[in-house]
# Entry
Amino acid sequence: MPAVDPYCMYYVALLCPTAIDQKVEQHKLWMRDRFGCTVALKSPAHITLVTPFWFDRLSEQTLLETVESIQTDLPPVEIQLQSFSHFSNRVLFIKVNDDPLLNSLRKQVEDHFIQALGRAIKPDTRPFHPHITIANRDIKPGDFDEAWQHFSNQSFEESFHTNTISLLKLTDNKWHVLAEKQY
# Structure
């Protein structure tokens, strides 16, 4: 019998409401049907606050306690989604309008997880560029131009307020919400 890996992957995010998630999923499905892109379909529509990390599943209670102990002095953040964009020819996404409150929330949440979990969380050294992924990692460079031509001629405008942080866990090749906390 093969040994069970004691580590699982997790990340922390702001999830889009169901109605917006369903609209985003239609774009992900178009990418799947047209170009075979399936990676983005593994997650609900979200804005990542703490990038994916490995953690001992036997210590998962520590993660749940870390989520539960999040406290901020911030009000609910308004997320404004507007149009499509991309990172080079590898990631297509829906743009999130820049918001200092969202930047502060991300910093506070990341700092909280680093303080609570130490080396398990590596600070993200890249500038924070919040977005909702449509396709990533599995879009072939040769398909990018056609996909971008499609999305660059479309609009996407939605907004929502949230004060809920979600912890997601990769199980059976799909990301599932493990815990949520209103901050």
